[in-house]
Amino acid sequence: MATSLLHPNPTPTAITTLKHHHHHPSLKPTIPPHNVSFLTNTNRLNTNTTKCNAFFDYNVVNSLLDVGGDKFPTFLRSLLLEFEDLSDMQRWESVLFGSLIWIYLTSRPGVLIGAIDAYLLAPLQLGFDNLSGRRNLKTADFLVGNKIGEGSFGVVYSGVLVPKNVTVDQDVTKRGRSKVKVGIKGAEEFGEFEEWFNYRLSRAAPETCAEFLGSFVADKTNSQFTKGGKWLVWKFEGDLTLGDYIKDRNFPSNLESVMFGRVLQGVDSSRRNALIIKQIMRQIITSLKKIHDTGIVHRDIKPANLVVTKKGQIKLIDFGAATDLRIGKNYVPDRTLLDPDYCPPELYVLPEETPSPPPAPIAAFFSPILWQLNSPDLFDMYSAGIVLLQMAIPTLRSPAALKNFNLEIKTCGYDLKKWREFTRLRPDFQILDSESGRGWDLATKLISERGPLRRGRLSAASALRHPYFLLGGDQAAAVLSKLSSSRK
Ligand SMILES: Nc1ncnc2c1ncn2[C@@H]1O[C@H](COP(=O)(O)OP(=O)(O)O)[C@@H](O)[C@H]1O
Ligand SMILES: [Mg+2]
């Protein structure tokens, strides 16, 4: 199915290929015989049309093919050759039509890539997973440890996965037996969407989220498992989330050596704090851009759902409330899932009156229009703005302060500049106002209403082009030079 998509206009393409195959004997075997009679008919119709003209010179086509040689895919060859038989007007029309189709299929959220993913990559992954046993892990494969979280969907434990085919002897390291440390999450009424999203993300943007190791249905009941309950397993990416770091009095210095591998000597502390926060924001927004490019909106971006790894990477977790706007998966919002502290004013990724989605292929076909009209990705960008504000303004870090902020910002019509005049929370804007206020400017463009036609709030791609991220080069250079001089 996916291959047929690559071939937007199969019938007429094959038509003229036949006529020219004698120029290109290598094409001959690839043409199925049943096309022959059918195609020659049409060929006759086309003989009257003008040939050779300034724009699509026959020789140009031929020399292109010569240059391309055998590397030219067959369908491109036939496409080019077909041109020869069309009138000038028809040629322009087909070029225009082809380009429009191409733009449509490749514009966000990517119908073409989505089809390839759904009809080719997903079945391949399923087959591969079945062979490797990833989808039927067993309760006995785990040593389950502490409970590390309990949220909207079930319980999260840390644990270790003991691989079946690794014997103890093979597996001796300095620290003793090495096992994969895992986070496992499950419940009897499991959010089936979360599993689906993790498989999807492990194909589409694996580096942005916790490494997904697979799933299993508990085969017996014991203290942790209930028989029949579904469990998901991820690599345990880190002991603490950004939420844990933010709660600490020393934030953001407590992340300095994690993020930069060392303490930034010779840089004054407010500058260092600003750099750490910028580095975190850059990672969050880069990951958001990647998932949005595949049509997924996370819908639950907040510090507790961002795991900080030992290497200072920020991993997105908890896709239980995510939605895939490409095929309309899980888009009907369940408001109880959303965290009101980080939720944008629109509350929904799509307007409430949007009808429930048609079957996946049809939904996918219309998804670029839906995306253009509603910019559902901007939902996550508001939450990212709140994360920035909380990191940069110490008095907003506690949940109680955030609740007050949310009351105030609502009163101010979600206009952050107005809020700055109005607030009684005595915020310290030092970090946001540094570097000529670029951080503040970005915050005002994230925490705002999702206006019509995307005005009012930046998408992940445009946020990454904001001067806050771009114009830091001079400072980064200064920091690096200080780092290297302090080493001497
Ligand atoms: N892969 C992981 N690595 C490390 N910690 C994790 C991982 N997955 C979850 N956690 C921890 O478990 C907590 C809850 O997990 P989460 O998926 O957010 O579940 P919930 O739906 O209950 O919020 C997270 O805040 C985090 O501390
Ligand atoms: Mg969570």
UniProtKB/TrEMBL annotation:
<protein>
    <recommendedName>
        <fullName>Protein kinase domain-containing protein</fullName>
    </recommendedName>
</protein>
<feature type="domain" description="Protein kinase">
    <location>
        <begin position="142"/>
        <end position="469"/>
    </location>
</feature>
<dbReference type="Pfam" id="PF00069">
    <property type="entry name" value="Pkinase"/>
</dbReference>
<dbReference type="InterPro" id="IPR000719">
    <property type="entry name" value="Prot_kinase_dom"/>
</dbReference>
<dbReference type="GO" id="GO:0004672">
    <property type="term" value="F:protein kinase activity"/>
</dbReference>
<dbReference type="GO" id="GO:0005524">
    <property type="term" value="F:ATP binding"/>
</dbReference>
<dbReference type="InterPro" id="IPR011009">
    <property type="entry name" value="Kinase-like_dom_sf"/>
</dbReference>
<dbReference type="InterPro" id="IPR008271">
    <property type="entry name" value="Ser/Thr_kinase_AS"/>
</dbReference>
